[in-house]
Structures are given as C-alpha cells and as structure tokens.
Specification:
The protein has about 325 residues and is of the alpha/beta class. Among the domains are: about 1-75 and about 120-135 and about 150-185, no CATH class; about 240-310, no CATH class. About 40% of the residues lie in helices and about 10% in strands. The protein contains 14 helices and 9 strands. It has helices at about 10-20, 25-30, 40-60, 80-85, 110-120, 140-150, 195-205, 220-230, 245-260, 265-275, 275-280, 290-295, 315-325, 330, and strands spanning about 1-5, 70-75, 130-135, 155-160, 175-180, 185, 240-245, 285-290, 310. Strands 3-2-1-4-5-6 form a 6-stranded mixed beta sheet, covered by helices on one side. Strands 8-7-9 form a 3-stranded antiparallel beta sheet. A hairpin with a 4-residue loop joins strand 5 and strand 6. Helix 7 crosses helix 13 (about 315-325). The two termini are about 30 Å apart.
Length: about 325
C-alpha cells in the first residue's frame, strides 16, 4: 500500500496563512511591532506546519492507509518549463502580479522546501518514514505519475486537488483519490481514462490556463471523445474558429445597425436568428466564434464573410494534450 501526496498542499496552506488575516501574517505583524521575538515566531510557524502534517496523517488513517508507505512529491523549480515550450502561457494565472512578462518556458517557481527549511524543518524527513521526492525539471504530477507507472498493480491513494491525475486510472484502475478533506470518486464521463487527456485538451483547464477549443464545454468535448476517440480522429470542422478584429467590427457595426433599421428588426430577433455575436459586432466588439456559431452568423445578409479570418486550432489542441498527458511524454521521450 502506498500514499502519494502532492506537496502543493503546503503551497495552498502557506498562502492561506500569509493572507492579510492569516495566522503567519498576524504573528509577523507582532514581530515587526516588537511584541514577539523572531525566535518565538519561528517556533509558532514550525508548530503550525507540524500540525498540518498531523492533519494529513489523520486523514490518511481515516482512509484506511495508516500502515501504507507515504511519499511526498514536490514541484521542481523549473518543472513547468518543458510544458511552457509548447504553451508559453501555461499556468500564467498562477503567477504573482509583480511579474510583468511571463513565459512558462523560462519561469522558475520558488522551492517550497526552502520555506520549510527556513523554519527548521527537514523536507526530506517531514515525519518518520515519510519519503520525499524532488526533481528540479518535473512537477509533482510527473513524479506521482511515474510512481504509479512503476506500480501498476499496487494499492495506491493519491492526495491531491488536481483532477489531471484521474487519468492514471488507465494505468492502475484501483487508484483512489483524496482531496485532503475526503475521498473522492472521479466523474464517469462515458469514455476510457485512456482518452482523458484528449477530453481535457478539448474542454480546456482553467486551473492551468489551458483554453481548449473555442466555445466548447466539457459536455460537448466528452461527446466528441465518445464518438471519435483520440484527437486524431475528430473531423477538422470541430477545430476551426473564426475571428473578427475590433477594427473590422467597427465597420460592421454601422452595417448591422443600418440593416436592423432598414428591416425593422428588434435586438431580440437579431440574437435569436443569428446568435449573440451579432450584437457584439453591432457594438464594435471583436468576436471569436466556433464553426456552428460562424455558420449561424453569416446567414445574416448584413454579414460579409470577408470580415472574418479562419483558424485551425488542431495543432494547439494537440499540444495541450501533450501538456496534460501523464506520465508525460515530455519526460519519457515519447514525443
């Protein structure tokens, strides 16, 4: 039996504790006001973090894994760079506001282990017999996935809040998941976990700043995977999208307004017949449309196809799948 813990647990806990009303911030305010010694501060922080470890052990025991071998997986400081080579804005939504220019292929995160060391804790020996794993060039998900791949028939529980790890059931169908509060069961989307990365690439992943196919939600993405399987089998029209720039939209705005006036058509009728995008264009706003939205819009006599540019997003979606896929082909050489 094994327990694998995503050490991002500490990142979220530290963020909460350092928030304006968090305990660490309040204690530091007392230090800065000379109402608490720095030594006392470190003792309180260390005690708080050891309490987090006790909490984890309690949840592990509750799940019936009290005798399991426990492995803690830390994110590498350059872990997101390999994925950043495919998509520079990977995890851009997790970057501090102080970062003016972000490119994931060059970005390094802070090493959470250093923060643990700073208060006198040893990240390689957080609790008796807990085993820590770290690779500067890999994310915690990579370490977890590689461990699972090496133990395809063992009993494993993964503590994480990252749903991307659900795809590991394609390797070990008995894997269990815990979100640090309770055990959870992945939602059955009607397709094999073998195609999880195909689905997520289509649907997008806001937590990692992956956009997916324009205007395509999780339900529609699942239908495509059920009907076609992998991305390679999905017909081209599903990857097409059309854009109208703000400059072109400003020209169209006058045309649409005049057309609506000449034909005495209400806004509600315009939206019903040709989609909400026509009102955006009427207001001079740039739009991005999928194939079906575009086909509906250009049925309007006021809309000239020449104002739109066609794009094929298949290559980008394939890159997103590579980013999401675990174990990562970026690290195992299968790309």
């Amino acid at each position: 039996m094994y327990v694998l813990i995503d050490a991002g647990f500490f990142v979220s806990r530290l963020a909460r504790n350092w928030a304006p009303q968090g305990r660490f911030r309040k204690w530091m305010n007392r230090v800065e006001a000379n109402k608490m010694s720095i030594g006392h501060y470190y003792n309180k922080v260390r005690k708080s973090l050891y309490g987090e470890l006790s909490y984890l052990q309690m949840r592990i025991n509750q799940a019936g894994f009290g005798t399991a071998e426990i492995h803690m997986m830390f994110d590498g400081t350059e872990g997101r760079q390999a994925r950043g080579n495919l998509f520079p804005q990977y995890k851009a939504n997790r970057v501090p506001t102080s970062v003016e220019e972000y490119n994931a292929s060059e970005y390094s995160i802070r090493d959470i282990r250093d923060e643990l060391r700073a208060v006198g804790m040893n990240p390689d020996n957080l609790r008796n017999k807990w085993i820590s794993h770290y690779d500067a060039e890999k994310e915690a998900d990579d370490l977890i996935a590689e461990f699972v791949a090496d133990h395809p028939e063992d009993t494993i529980m993964i503590f994480t809040q990252d749903s991307d790890l659900y795809q590991l059931r394609a390797i070990n169908e008995t894997i269990r998941f815990h979100n640090f509060t309770e055990e959870i069961n992945p939602i059955d989307n009607g397709f094999s976990y073998q195609h999880y990365a195909d689905w997520k690439a289509l649907a997008g992943d806001s937590s990692d700043n992956i956009p997916g196919v324009s205007n395509l939600g999780p339900k529609q993405a699942a239908e495509l995977v059920i009907n076609y399987g992998s991305l390679e089998n999905i017909p081209d029209p599903y990857f097409l999208y059309y854009t109208c720039t703000e400059t072109a939209a400003l020209v169209l705005a006058n045309v649409i307004t005049q057309y609506q006036t000449d034909n005495d058509i209400t806004d509600a009728t315009m939206k019903r017949k040709w989609g909400a995008a026509i009102m955006n264009l009427k207001n001079g706003q740039a739009v991005k449309l999928n194939q079906s939205q575009y086909e509906k819009l250009v049925n309007c006599d006021a809309i000239d196809e020449g104002y739109f540019q066609q794009h094929n997003d298949r290559d980008n979606i394939m890159n997103y799948r590579t980013i999401i896929k675990l174990p990562s082909p970026l690290h195992d050489g299968n790309i």
